[in-house]
Amino acid sequence: MNPMNWLVVQPEIVLLVMACVVALADLFVKDEQRRPTFWLAQLSLAVVAFIQVDQLQAMMHAEELKTGLTSMYGMQQMVVADPMGRLLAVCATLTLMATLAYAQPYIGAREMLKGEFFSLSMLSLLGVLVMLSANNFLVVYLGLELMTLSLYALVALRRDHAVSTEAAMKYFVLGALASGFLLYGMSMMYGATGTLEIGGVFDVIQAGRANRDVLTFGLVFIVAGLAFKLGVVPFHMWVPDVYQGAPTAVTLLIAGAPKLAAFGITIRLLHEGMNGLARDWQQMLIVLAVASLVIGNLAAIAQTNLKRLLAYSTIAQLGFMLLGLTPTVVGGNTVSAANGYSSALFYLITYVLTTLASFGLIMLLARQGFEAEEIKDLAGLGKRSPWMAGVMLIVMFSLAGIPPTVGFYAKLAVLQSLITTNDPAYITLAVVAVVLSLIGAFYYLRVVKVMYFDEPTESVQIVGPAGARALLAINGAAVLALGLLPSGLMGLCRDAIVKALAT
């Protein structure tokens, strides 16, 4: 086998080259709307997505094609391409394409429509892809820093806007602290096991050759770092402030692909590397999940700012997703883990899809000198723009878990993964999750009530680019369609997880 195997990192190489090309090409663009830069970035992302889909199909059908390439290693075993990583990478790339489409008119009205926005967005995606393909602690950290540094710069892109600058500083300081936690935890893992390879850590732990005390301390720091990147309690302090303070286009960048990356490295580090410590990190995840559900849902009730409400909603939603990661491999039986991980993966992908629609609609409602960030700004939307209100209705129902939207099926899948373990503790967790979701439904339905039952506070006609409006309609239809026909995506998630667990 070729120890370098450049094909494994082909999407990352193409993305890196094109991010540089976009940055250079923008210097020669005279169009104030930056249309050439925008379309070059979108074309580049489409090529990257095509390569990823091609590799994913080859891996998913490896047995039929008799290639044996269920997963591929490269760069001297430092990176890996497997179905789970490639599925998340495809979703992250498509998420960025949709984000840029929503963002173009919004950033154009706020003097942010520059080549830097597109190139930094592509570099943040590159960090996501590096993390998703990491098979080594150093690669994980390299991808993490590439992603976060790009996002710090994007949050602070409006240098003359005090609120955005403050949000960037909070994000930077707390993000650096969390990165330090993760790095310190990985250094302790290296000290305890003598290897930086994730698979090597697993082998040493299984053989019982590692210092148990050092392992436990390292695990605590790693889980703390991962919890910050996911934005779950008690490492959630940055989420509401950054979501509210950052320009909405950048908020969507933070709320989308990075969550997929955080999920990917959580599986890589905790399951593939530290499955021998599953009893320890399982209990930590349960505490994080329940605390996030409680704090996220209760704090959201008091919010009047829509972006801040969605931030606390994110905390609660990711807490629910973490419940799917708690069933672990016990006694060599991978069924409970496969059920839980696949339901969590499905939950996260569909949540990101729903997030795209929610923040995309906020950007469409905004205009020059006006940010549609308060819940009261949606008053009478059902009369002013019935189709926009309809999309927001579908989004709120999905986040609340009301059928027939995809949010209902996603929650049901996670609850089933808990109940089918036949463990009283997991069944109790499922009951707690249902009760807290019922509390959360209150603030989602309040948004619906404001849209349809409150009188409009203004009569300004809602207009927006046809492309962004069409994308929003497709986005809302996808949330509804996946709720009616979820089996295709759910099957894909399960196959990707099963193949990942097998390797």
TrEMBL record:
Domain of life of the source: Bacteria
Keyword Membrane (UniProt): yes
Compartments, as annotated in UniProt: Cell membrane; Endomembrane system; Membrane
One Gene Ontology term of the molecular function aspect: NADH dehydrogenase (quinone) (non-electrogenic) activity
Stored Pfam families: Proton_antipo_M
InterPro entries in the cross-refs: NADH-Q_OxRdtase_suN/2, ND/Mrp_TM
Record-annotated membrane-spanning stretches: 6-29, 84-103, 169-194, 214-238, 250-271, 283-302, 309-332, 344-366, 387-406, 426-445, 466-485
The NADH:quinone oxidoreductase/Mrp antiporter transmembrane domain, residue ranges: 134-437
Substrates-to-products reaction catalysed: a quinone + NADH + 5 H(+)(in) = a quinol + NAD(+) + 4 H(+)(out)
Record EC number: 7.1.1.-
Membrane topology annotation: Multi-pass membrane protein
Alphabetically ordered keywords of this record: Cell membrane, Membrane, NAD, Oxidoreductase, Quinone, Translocase, Transmembrane, Transmembrane helix, Transport, Ubiquinone
Main location: membrane
Subunit structure: NDH-1 is composed of 14 different subunits. Subunits NuoA, H, J, K, L, M, N constitute the membrane sector of the complex.
Function, as annotated: NDH-1 shuttles electrons from NADH, via FMN and iron-sulfur (Fe-S) centers, to quinones in the respiratory chain. The immediate electron acceptor for the enzyme in this species is believed to be ubiquinone. Couples the redox reaction to proton translocation (for every two electrons transferred, four hydrogen ions are translocated across the cytoplasmic membrane), and thus conserves the redox energy in a proton gradient.
Record family assignment: Belongs to the complex I subunit 2 family.
Protein name, UniProt field: NADH-quinone oxidoreductase subunit N
